[in-house]
Amino acid sequence: MKNKISSHDRRQLKGYIYILPWLIGFLVLQLIPFIQSFYYSFTDYSIMSSPKFSGLKNYITLFTVDPEFWNSFKVTWIYTLYTVPGKIIMALIVAMLMNRDMKGINGLRTIYYIPSLFGGSVAICILWRLMFMDTGVINGILGAFGLPKLQWLGNTKTALPTICMMEIWQFGSSMVMMLAALKNVPKDLYEAADLDGAGAWDKFKNVTIPQISPIIFFNVIMQTNNALQAFTNAFVITKGGPLKSTYLLGMKLYQEAFSYYKMGYASAISWVIFATIMVVTLLLFRYSSGKVYYSDAGDF
């Protein structure tokens, strides 16, 4: 018995040793900075000075004095409302097209997934900016068809939709999950619907959507969280312009922290973003009750 117990303990020790690098990384790079940022959000703190406790001053300034915050908050929500539905709808449409038995389908699936491999990279953002410049490829194509050229990145009405298009274009990961969910829909449900005389739309609405609703819900949660934290696209492509029309909360946080060195104020912004994500996530979970179907456990 003693040998068995010691052997079990040795295996446990090995397991702890294997996960030790992750634990150290989690503590040093995530948990400790997470707690510190909460403390700093209640301080007057810059890189050049030690933090001084200031209570709710940063939050009061943020909500009542700083006009840029509310503009960034609005822009971030517009960005989220554009990109999340757009990305999920595109992913679902392409997944349904890819859910077919045809020659070369695996190659097509790979091609549609490729944008996600490069998504969010600075190089792709630069390429996107070059494409949508006044003298870029997109205006060149419009000119070739005799259509008027647009100031995609210089117009307050088109700048935000332009960077949203880049985010929607990166739907590959969602598409792969949707495709996997579609392949797991029982065929006998479609056969039963055919016997009842259901059309294509009825089968999509009453069979496909309920069966893949957990994956749709998961994507809504993840894409919403990502959109509320967006930074790279706007920073590289438009720098928040023109006239702050693409000035996302992530950009404001970066600007306050690394341009003005207001670390305490930037920490307050980060916690507002975190609180927003938490509230939205809880509301989505609340709303999903009775609308997301789990075949092995009933409604969520």
TrEMBL record:
It is a multi-pass membrane protein. It is found in: Cell membrane. The keyword Transmembrane applies. The chain crosses the membrane at residues 20-42, 77-98, 110-131, 263-285. One of its GO terms (biological process) is transmembrane transport. SUPFAM superfamilies: MalF N-terminal region-like, MetI-like. Keywords: Cell membrane, Membrane, Transmembrane, Transmembrane helix, Transport. Residues 73-284 form the ABC transmembrane type-1 domain. PROSITE patterns: ABC_TM1. Pfam families: BPD_transp_1. The keyword Chaperone does not apply. InterPro entries: ABC_transporter_permease, MetI-like, MetI-like_sf. GO terms for cellular component: plasma membrane. Belongs to the binding-protein-dependent transport system permease family. This is Carbohydrate ABC transporter membrane protein 1, CUT1 family. It comes from Butyrivibrio proteoclasticus.
